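#lab-general

N.A. 3:47 PM
ok so I finally got the sequence cleaned up, no stray characters, all 995 residues accounted for. can someone with queue access submit it? mine expired

B.Y. 3:52 PM
send it over

N.A. 3:53 PM
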Amino acid sequence: MAIYVMCLFSFFASAQDTTVTGVVVSDEDGETVPGATVLVKGSSNGTVTDLDGRYSISAPSDAILVVSFVGFETQEIGVAGRSVVDVSMTTDFQQLEEVVVVGYGTVKKSDNTGALSSVKSKDLNAFPTLSAVQGLQGRAAGVQIQSTNGGQPGAEMNMRIRGGSSINASSDPLVVVDGFVGGEMPPPADIASMEVLKDASATAIYGSRAANGVILVTTKSGGAGKTKVDVNSSYSYQETSNRLDLLSGEDYRDYILEVVPAYSYDATVDTDWQDEIFRPGHIWNNQVSVSGGSEDVKYYISGTQFEQEGVIDNSSYERFSVTSNLNIKASERVTIGMNLYGRRSIDQGVLTQETTGGSSSTGVVGAAARLEPDTPVRDADGNYTQSKLGDNIDNPVAIANEIDRERVTDRFQSNGFVDFKLLDWLSFKTTLGAGVTSYREGVFSSSDLVRGGESGVATLEFDKATNLLTENYFTINKEFGIHRINWVNGYSFQKRVDEAVETGASSFLSEATSYWLLESGAASITPVSAQSTRILKSYYSRANYTLMDRYVFTATIRYDGASNFAKNNKWAYFPSGAIAWNVGDEPFLESISTISDMKLRASYGLTGNQGIGAYESLATVDAYYSNRPGQGALILGTLSNPDLTWETTAQLDIGIDVGLFDNRVRLTADYYDKQTYDLLFDRPIPAFFGVNESVPTQLQNYGEIQNQGFEAMLTTRNLVGDFTWTSNVVFAMNKNQVTSLPDSSTISYFNAPGHFNITSGFQLLQEGQSMGVYYGYVYEGVTQPGDPLLVGSDAKIGGEQFADLNGDGELTDADKKIIGNPHPDFTWSFNNDFTYKNFDMNIFIQGVHGNEMLNLTRMELESFRGTNNVSTAALDRYNALDNPTGDIPSADPARTQKISSRWVEDGSYVRLKNVALGYTVPQSVLEKIKVRSLRLYVSAQNLFTITNYSGLDPEAAYANEGEGTNNADSNRNLGLDYASYPNVKTYTVGLNLGF
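B.Y. 4:20 PM
back already:
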């Protein structure tokens, strides 16, 4: 009887409704989800979450709750007798990607015909980065990103979309931030999404600036509801990821006395110069944002602070920024908005990657590699020591401490808009933007340095760039029956003014004022000043027509006029056309359940590149000073070209987008062929033109480059439920080829430290080859008894042996050939996100394969000429008595440095880019401490690298930062490595806190 009563009681208890409460949040960022529907399955009983994502519903204890919201997968959760049921919503990728951002608006993803990659805010913020560009690395197919100087605080990033398409002009993509063309990206934490536009269909609406691709950045904005305060803070510890293996102690003594018998070795000193300059570094990264509003007024304001102490003494970078967005719905048909961004950065730099020659130009890393280990940091009198071998260079500690080098940059940009909804299907938007960038850079070298002379040298430079932009365009969005049209027509005007001045002085009475009291210097450095203005006017139109939700046609044209081109060619048209077929909507695929959707795309169009200075089509004159007073004159500086015009890129793209198994597997793949012609090329001209240059040139439109490749991105949701696993695989291959040059000539050039005394080019531009291939001798090992002794080489047993390609018994330029290619065969990345209940993990791996590096650092450290310290490879050097079978050339003070295949190495690598583990505190706990969301995490970056490259880092990029507008160095100088700032390993702890 008792058992019967208990069962009956249990039955009635289970049938009785109880009140169930909880909070619905997003599993991606822990944000609450207001407006989500919570329904008791099998009934009409339901409710909606409030502004804080909370709900309360009456339900049986054995009920199943069905929770749904736009953009998220529908969740079914059993109550199981609980009174509190919190729900974590998983992003529905198919719904989320219904709309994509394109130039001057948005379109339904099914209506998009262009090749683009979308990158989520979560991926950009996976780990602390200097900039959003760095966070983009490995996240988008066809996009290559590399630091210009390793782990240097504040280092710029070079970005290439589908390869470099220019030789002398810029190959940087166009950046558009909230509609401001040429804007600066805010910190990653302030970015909502980023779209990378790659083919002509996607980019042609930006016309003459779109040949290198376009990056569209959308910053975060507020939402209706209660004010939200979010705090994101992290601290990172950094250390060098690798160091050079150099001789020290007795090993160095044995080597140096063999090659320089008269050397006075000091056995009491054994200085590790790398230990002297390297230190642990750190990053503080903090952001606070406030967002909220009503249905009519929405706001977002954020402040960030980024501080990095570099792993080399006296190198640091600080940045303070503010981002603000305001949107006001003034009426049913008028919306007003304003985007503001401001930042100040302070860059304390140390000298690395030196390019010029002489004892006064050595950088910190180069000096640490070269200086003898038996030299102390300071001598007996307390003065900094200098090298005892070769050039009389400063020691690295002195270089790091005695150069006061600071660059302060201020940036402000604003973009206001008014959007008029004239009709239900017709709108007009007008924008007005302004951006001002100014920087001041001061450098002071003290008299403790060779470069500082007897009483110091100082320079001071000021630059300012003002950018004004207005866009005005109509948008038609109309559906009628089986037809849908999106049509944009507009006008754009942009003006940029650059101003600069530079001056300096030397021979100071006191060095205490650094570069701030130039008038106290007895000798002035000739001041230089400049001002330039560029104007761009444009008319553009893009029509997107969709038939039956299946067949999509896009036509785009832009008509650009630019002041920086010659009078005969200031205007040009840039058209494109594209088609797409939504095969997945065809009736014949309805029976194939494995295919969720499928789209085929094809496009062709023309885009331009105007990345040159303001007046490069005009003739200029230089002052010519005679040694006789009053007899100065003017001489032709550059030759005019009245027909100079844009570089033009014609691009074909064929792509496919596929979703399988309810979109748990998604693939996007593209084949492209980019042909760039009318290159802006500095063509050599005869000396009789009288141009004041050692090698006179004229900027002309001549030459062609091809970039051809394949790229793909595969997204898979491998596991769903309590344990989830989502993967992204990005793959890209690009073949770069110079297809035409002036007069079919081969152009050689070189970039190497001046003290190498290289006088002939070892980098080539040659028809049929990739840009910047290496050119030199073929190294065949150590000369053995019986081998031919070539005139012009070491010509001794134990020396370097080179191939005599023409068989004349001499080593001459005729024995040189192409010995390496810096362009990779393919790149890839593998990103994995795991979640289990409140835990999340990210593992991100990146790879580059098939590229070759020219290791100039190794060339210096393994030439064994007795002019500097050397690597531990010297322990295996040939020696007739001690090591007659050594496979490393002997030490030889008479050896001349030669570019050869000995210094060309495989630069392929696989790198564990990021590992992160996070924990989101449950809502039940957060309620008690009055916190909306809290996530704690730890992460590590660059934990290990698998590579055969012997240098410090296979991502090294020597002498490719470029100068000014052209940035030509970054196009041609690829794969070189010399004395760069080292890359770093990073260990991070952080939190994301919401109120």
